[in-house]
Structures are given as structure tokens and as C-alpha cells.
């Protein structure tokens, strides 16, 4: 079977799966239901300050509010990356034969990501999230990444961010104590992103094989930088301000918090394992992965 035929087989399978099981967040999320008073936005143990002296200073209501604000910040970063991914997928289709299953599945994924971004935006508004946009650094980095990324970098970036979100949201959708809206949004995203991850891994395998030693080293550095910025965006100073904490102090405490580092490493584990296996993580660029806090 040729690489092109294999690509078509994978895309056709994913297209059939999309037809069988896809969601419409406008219908499948109960946007009119009131939020459950006092319910967390994510499991307390997965909050960035959990286990620190700052966490102990917060009362139960403040802890719940911080968890909701951190969930909103993660949703805002999800919109940011999905917009970058959609740009890359549009270029992918632009350079493809639109009659192929590969191009048509890429268009299907773009439609999925449009719905996801709208869903995340509505969830931020509904939950009273104060984080609406990525940081200035991430906004600028996204422009650069979107302008320079070829197929290998595009699909590697998609795998990292989607696996990071998947690790977080699989826990959220199973936790009955969380806000029902957040659990349903997590469920929708996990189910549909599983197809996106499969597509990205298939495309990355072929794109990575086309690069020589120099090209691979450049991609290693670029994806390490992207992972560092994307992981950093899980935290946002405004989330801490909302519960009366000094944002600079709280950010420093969270960054040094070993519990938070273990949380990030757990969420990113599948992507890190896959990248290590194919050689995308290695050499001097590993330092950026350690700074991101996702390597054990």
C-alpha cells in the first residue's frame, strides 16, 4: 500500500466516523441551565496552586472560583490554538486535491474546530471567565507559528495541544462533582478530538520522514518552543486576580509547584511519549520541554 493510499484509507475511516458520531454544541450543551452554585470548574487537585500555602489561604468559595477561572483560561487558550490549526488546515487543503478523502476530512476537521471554538467561547461567557484572549506573547507567537509552519510542525503542534487538552478533559468529563456544562463540553471535545489526533499522527509520520537531519533539528526546536508557550497559556494572571491574589506571586508559586508540574506532565504524557518514540524530542531542545514542566 502506498503512502498516498494509506493516507486515503485513514481519512476515509475518519470521515465515516465523523458522520456516525459528531455533536452540535448549540443543541447538545444545555446553555440555559444555571450553573451549579459552588461547583468546581476542574478537580481541585488539578488546580495550579493546589498543595501550596497560597491554596491554604483561600476559602472554599475562592478555590471553586479559581478552578472555574483556570478552566476558562484553558478554554481561551484552546480557541487560540484552534484558530492557528485551522489556518494550517486551510493551507493543507489549498495544496491538495479537493476530491481526495484526505482533503475532505481536513475540511471536516476545520468544521469541527469552528464549532469547538464557538463552544469554548460560549462556555467562557457563561461561566463568567475573566480570561478572554491569550497573553500578548502567545498572540504574537501564534502569528509567527501560523506563518512558518509546514506539515510536520503543523501536525506535531496539533498532536501536542490536543493530547494536552485530552488528558485534562478526560478527567473533567468523569468527575461528577464538576459543573455539568464543563463536563459535557469536555466529553464533546474528547470524542471529536480523538479523530483529529489520529489524522495528525498519520500526517506527521509522513511529513517527518521527508526531513533530513538539519530539518528535523529545526523542527525539534520549533515544536519545543510551541509546547512551552502553549503549556504556559494554561495559566493566566487574571485568573489569580479574580480571587484576590497577587498575580505575579501566584504565577511564581504555581510555576514552582511540584504538584502542578506533575499535573502538566500527566496531561502531556501521550504526546511526549509519541514524540520521543519518533525522535521529535531529543538533543538540546529538551531544555525547553523541561522548562514547560512536562518531562518527568
How are the secondary structure elements laid out?
Layout: H1 3-20, H2 25-28, H3 53-57, H4 60-94, H5 101-127, H6 136-148, H7 151-174, H8 180-209, H9 213-232, H10 237-241, H11 247-256, H12 258-278, H13 286-292
Helix pairs in contact: 1-5, 1-8, 4-5, 4-6, 4-7, 5-8, 7-8, 7-9, 7-12, 9-13
Can you tell me the CATH class?
Mainly Alpha
Mean pLDDT: 93
Using the coordinates shown, work out and report the CATH topology: Ribonucleotide Reductase, subunit A
Beta content comes to under 5%
The low-confidence runs, each spanning 5 or more residues with pLDDT under 50, are none
The number of helical segments is 13
Shape verdict:
globular
Q: How would you classify the helix and strand content by structural class?
A: mainly alpha
Residue share in helix: over 70%
Under the CATH scheme, which architecture would be assigned?
Orthogonal Bundle
Order of helices and strands: HHHHHHHHHHHHH
CATH superfamily: Ribonucleotide Reductase, subunit A
Can you summarize the main beta sheet? none
Question: What's the number of structural domains?
Answer: 1
| Spatial extent as radius of gyration | 19 Å
Amino acid at each position: 500500500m502506498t503512502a498516498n493510499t494509506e493516507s486515503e484509507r485513514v481519512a476515509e475511516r475518519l470521515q465515516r466516523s465523523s458522520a456516525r458520531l459528531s455533536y452540535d454544541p448549540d443543541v447538545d450543551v444545555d446553555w440555559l441551565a444555571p450553573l451549579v452554585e459552588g461547583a468546581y470548574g476542574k478537580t481541585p487537585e488539578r488546580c495550579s496552586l493546589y498543595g501550596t500555602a497560597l491554596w491554604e489561604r483561600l476559602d472554599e468559595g475562592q478555590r471553586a472560583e479559581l478552578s472555574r477561572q483556570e478552566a476558562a483560561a484553558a478554554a481561551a487558550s484552546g480557541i487560540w490554538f484552534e484558530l492557528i490549526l485551522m489556518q494550517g488546515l486551510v493551507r493543507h487543503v489549498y495544496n491538495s486535491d479537493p476530491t481526495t478523502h484526505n482533503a475532505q476530512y481536513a475540511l471536516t476537521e476545520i468544521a469541527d474546530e469552528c464549532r469547538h471554538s464557538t463552544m469554548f467561547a460560549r462556555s467562557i461567557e457563561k461561566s463568567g471567565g475573566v480570561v478572554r484572549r491569550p497573553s500578548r506573547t502567545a498572540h504574537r507567537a501564534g502569528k509567527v507559528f501560523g506563518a512558518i509552519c509546514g506539515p510536520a510542525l503543523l501536525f506535531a503542534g496539533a498532536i501536542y495541544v490536543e493530547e494536552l487538552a485530552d488528558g485534562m478533559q478526560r478527567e473533567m468529563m468523569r468527575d461528577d462533582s464538576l459543573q455539568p456544562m464543563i463536563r459535557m463540553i469536555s466529553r464533546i471535545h474528547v470524542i471529536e478530538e480523538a479523530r483529529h489526533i489520529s489524522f495528525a499522527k498519520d500526517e506527521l509520520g509522513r511529513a517527518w520522514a521527508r526531513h533530513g537531519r538539519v530539518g528535523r533539528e529545526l523542527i525539534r526546536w520549533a515544536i519545543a518552543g510551541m509546547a512551552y508557550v502553549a503549556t504556559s497559556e494554561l495559566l493566566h494572571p487574571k485568573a489569580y486576580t479574580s480571587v484576590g491574589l497577587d498575580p505575579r506571586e501566584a504565577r511564581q508559586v504555581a510555576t514552582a509547584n511540584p504538584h502542578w508540574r506533575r499535573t502538566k506532565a500527566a496531561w502531556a504524557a501521550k504526546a511526549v511519549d509519541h514524540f520521543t518514540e519518533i525522535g521529535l524530542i531529543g538533543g538540546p531542545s529538551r531544555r525547553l520541554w523541561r522548562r514547560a514542566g512536562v518531562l518527568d
